[in-house]
Amino acid sequence: MNAEIITIGDELLIGQTIDTNSVYLAKKLEEIGIRVSRKTAISDSKSDILEMLHSAQNRVNLVIITGGLGPTKDDITKKTLVEYFNCGWRTDQSVLMHLAKIFATRGRELLETNKIQAELPDICVTLHNEVGTAPGMLFNENKKIVISLPGVPNEVHYLTEFEVLPKLQQFFNLPKVEHRTLVTLMVPESLLSKQLEAFESSLPEDLSLAYLPSYNCVKLRLSCKVLQKSENYLNDYFQKLQKAADPYVFCIGDETPANFIGNYLIKNNLSIATAESCTGGFIVNQLVQVPGISEILPGSILSYSNSIKHEELHVPQETIHTYGAVSEEVAVAMVDGVCAKFGVNIGIATTGIAGPTGGSPEKPVGLIFIAVKFNEKILVKKFKLHGSRLQFMERANNCAMAMVKEILEIKE
Amino acid sequence: MNAEIITIGDELLIGQTIDTNSVYLAKKLEEIGIRVSRKTAISDSKSDILEMLHSAQNRVNLVIITGGLGPTKDDITKKTLVEYFNCGWRTDQSVLMHLAKIFATRGRELLETNKIQAELPDICVTLHNEVGTAPGMLFNENKKIVISLPGVPNEVHYLTEFEVLPKLQQFFNLPKVEHRTLVTLMVPESLLSKQLEAFESSLPEDLSLAYLPSYNCVKLRLSCKVLQKSENYLNDYFQKLQKAADPYVFCIGDETPANFIGNYLIKNNLSIATAESCTGGFIVNQLVQVPGISEILPGSILSYSNSIKHEELHVPQETIHTYGAVSEEVAVAMVDGVCAKFGVNIGIATTGIAGPTGGSPEKPVGLIFIAVKFNEKILVKKFKLHGSRLQFMERANNCAMAMVKEILEIKE
Q1: Within 13 Å, how many C-alpha atoms sit on residue B150's CB side?
Q2: Which helix (H) or strand (E) holds A197?
Q3: Is A270 exposed, middle or buried (0-12, 13-18, 19+ CB in 10 A)?
Q4: Are B39 and B26 in contact (CB under 8 A)?
Q5: CB neighbours of B145 closer than 8 A, spacing ≥ 6?
Q6: Closest CA relative to residue B145, chosen from B167, B160, B129
Q7: 0.80 cut: is pTM over it?
Q8: Res. B132: pLDDT tops 60
């Protein structure tokens, strides 16, 4: 079964806001067997919303709209839905009570503007929004569903999990689409595709392989569109894929490299710390997104300046003087220093030039030395990374995770 | 003039990839006076691509497609464009030469798969992609333009800046849309909208105000749709907006709070360091996205464990014991410690519970103490933040930036 998502808001079209709601929604719908076949972003314009609702409802039986439910003048979704469904208005007492409660908790006065949130189209089912002020709405007309959600991400998450998915599961009864994903690191897409040529040719029609590239990282996703076969059917082909992609596989599953490493370290009770110069805490901040990491990550040092490299990490001033701050020798001294300081099993150190300024012909922007230490073993590598300041940090992080996997000899 | 963006790729629909390309493109097009009126994400399906091209070309004179130009089997955009325009193929020698060069530089063999990138529809103008292997393509049929770009973000950036924008500026001749943006922090959208009621009512028809909310932060964007008036016309109303929103204005312009603070510190040669516990380096990593920050940010400490709070930041063990690690007293000791350690003008310290675990009735998930020190002055505040682990860090970062502005008494 297919669905379409319509996101409403000028801010999505003018390039001021990145739409993460539809990404989240698509993933969650996929999990219950609903495929998003199209996503459309339109402006806060009545005629555009009406036209999109008409055309989307012609194509699919489920349309989800996000945005335009705020209390301000440019939020017109609710009014437009009343016009589209040609219905009236009602005041939802449960929403009113929820608003009173939420404003009391926050110690703020409940304004007339806020009370408007309780005025709803009279034919809709209210979707209770525990974490915000704008309720979701569900319209069921001739077995075709339209759902309207607010645009604030954590409210979309709450409503999806506790209202939308359970109600859709009840309403539709569908076969599940199954996926298996693995992550490759440090291999270009074209080389990977050559490596997988024979495997791809051997795929039966009901299986498909997708390449999902990002920085230094290509995810491979094998999908079974109709799971009429046994679960082993997809698993068997996924094992063939793992074998075919073997030298490049970083981990199995759909997770970030930092997430994989973080969880591995927690599970194996291995402690870690970073000493970052050019990556400015990016690597440790990827690791700390993993819940529970504080148990094995006591701390980290960001050391931009040479004096902090010396004072905090005990990098000898002579080493910095002889080889320069951006050098293999300094990276090694930094990783030694951070492991000794925090008494951790694993250390990661980075020194390089993130740009856009600070490069020279000898040491250009994008140059980075990464050192990883595990007990007494040290691995140090030089990379030349391209892209913006943030992309440089993302690539460096993936390089570091690949090195941690290498030094720990993790078999996947 | 209006344009539509079509993004192609199953990964955008299945929720595995966040689309930043269309956000970037919309912003850049807006700057040269082209308004994106619709964005549509569709799958790697020939029929969907053909249908969207037809319908988009019926609505607007400029259609930009991203994605589906990779060297692998699931990339079908180029073939579909040949079918759509009913044209033939040509080999582009300049692309072949570029491919040879790029593979030589990377020390990799040029495979037949890669050479396919030089096979182009014979009626298209080649858009040279210096930073990648897939060229962009421009089709001009009866004064209607279709542009096809790859899906890799830094390639989209390069092609847009050096090929797409100059060619579009040459082709179309359009009035500019002007925007003025300001950033408010720590005020809910509904309260802000009440505050701005009189201002909004006073706006003439050719000006519009949009609210762009994110975590603890609402951007206000005033737009002049047709700049027939003098530049002062928009500026005058923008000044009225600043006055109306006055108590809540964080900064003028469209930038992140961390970017504003980072640039302010660089400009005023004020040094800064952070001592972060629950925010895990998130705050310093927002600051280090500002080029040149390493001049005034010597280093930072991430101190999850109590022993590192004590050893590195000299937080007395008694303070931790008496008040708990998550307390006002520890936040103050941490900020004292980090300022002393690095000899900086400004310190930021955080201690709290990011969740999802680790909370208690007394100290629930979301509780955070933030201390900011400037020379001898210390400001410390307690917040209860909601949302996921990452949202908690984003909100905490905005709180910290507001506190830095407050303690420095920056007037905007």
Answers
A1: 26
A2: helix A197-201
A3: middle
A4: yes
A5: B61, B62, B63, B138, B139, B168, B171
A6: B167
A7: no
A8: yes
CA distance to B179, B373, B389, per residue, from B396 (Å): 29, 16, 11
pLDDT, tens only, B326-336: 999 999 999 99
Q: Closest approach of chain A CAs to the CA of B101, in angstroms?
A: 16
Which chain A residues contact residue B56 at CB under 8 A?
A: none
**CA A385 → CA A212, A279, A354, A356, A402, distances in Å?**
20, 12, 9, 12, 15
Contact A284 B280 (CB under 8 A): yes
Q: Is B362 exposed, middle or buried (0-12, 13-18, 19+ CB in 10 A)?
A: exposed
Tell if the CB–CB gap between B302 and A282 is shorter than 8 Å.
no
Structure tokens at A266: 């927690």
B302–chain A nearest CA distance, Å: 5
Residues of B whose CB is below 8 A from A389 = 289, 291
What parts of chain A have a pLDDT lower than 70?
Answer: 16, 73-74, 174-177, 225-230, 412
Q: Is B170 exposed, middle or buried (0-12, 13-18, 19+ CB in 10 A)?
A: exposed
The CA-atom distances, in angstroms, between A107 and each of A100, B186, B233 are 10, 14, 39
Q: Which residue, B58, B51, B78, is CA-closest to B151?
A: B78
- CATH 3.30.70.2860 at A178-252, yes or no: yes
The interface predicted TM-score of the complex, written ipTM, equals: 0.74
Rounded Cα gap, residues B247 and B238, in angstroms: 15
Structural fold of domain A2-171: Molybdenum Cofactor Biosythetic Enzyme; Chain A (3.40.980)
Q: Tokens 């590598």 sit at which residue?
A: A381
Query: Are B193 and A390 inside 8 Å of each other by CB?
Result: no
Residue B325 identity (one-letter amino acid): A
Domain ranges in chain B are 2-171, 178-252, 257-408
The CA–CA distances, whole Å, from B147 to A254, B116, B231 equal: 32, 19, 32
**φ and ψ at A126, to 5 degrees?**
-75, 130
Q: In the predicted model, is pLDDT for residue B298 greater than 70?
A: yes
Q: How far apart are CA A5 and CA B41, in angstroms?
A: 10
| pLDDT > 60? residue B373 | yes
* Cis amide bond preceding B356, omega within 30: yes
Asked if A218 contacts A192 with a C-beta cutoff of 8 angstroms, the reply is yes
Instruction: List the structure tokens of A166.
Output: 């359970």
Reduced to 3 states (helix: H, G, I; strand: E, B; else coil), residue B121 is strand
What does the pLDDT look like over B43-64, one tens digit per residue? 988 999 999 999 999 999 999 9
Are A27 and B41 in contact (CB < 8 Å)?
no
Dihedral angle over CA of B91, B93, B95, B96, nearest 10:
90
B259: CB partners within 8 A, 6+ apart: B289, B290
- Tell me what percent of chain B is helix, strand and coil, each rounded to the nearest 5: 40, 25, 35
CATH 3.90.950.20 matches B257-408: yes
Nearest residue, CB atoms, A280 vs list B13, B36, B285: B285
Structure confidence by residue, pLDDT tens digits, A252-264 = 998 999 999 999 9
Instruction: Find the CB nearest A24 among B15, B20, B254.
Output: B15
Q: What is the pLDDT of residues B66-99, one digit of tens each?
A: 988 877 766 789 999 999 999 999 999 999 999 9
3-state secondary structure of A173: coil
Rounded distance between C-alpha atoms, residue B282 and residue B262, angstroms: 14
Residue B403: its H or E element: helix B389-408
Contact A194 B70 (CB under 8 A): no
Contacting residues for B314 by C-beta, under 8 A, at least 6 apart: B333, B336, B337, B340, B341
- Lookup: tokens for B87: 């044209």
Query: Are the beta carbons of B35 and A19 separated by less than 8 Å?
Result: no
Tokens matching residue A30: 């996929």
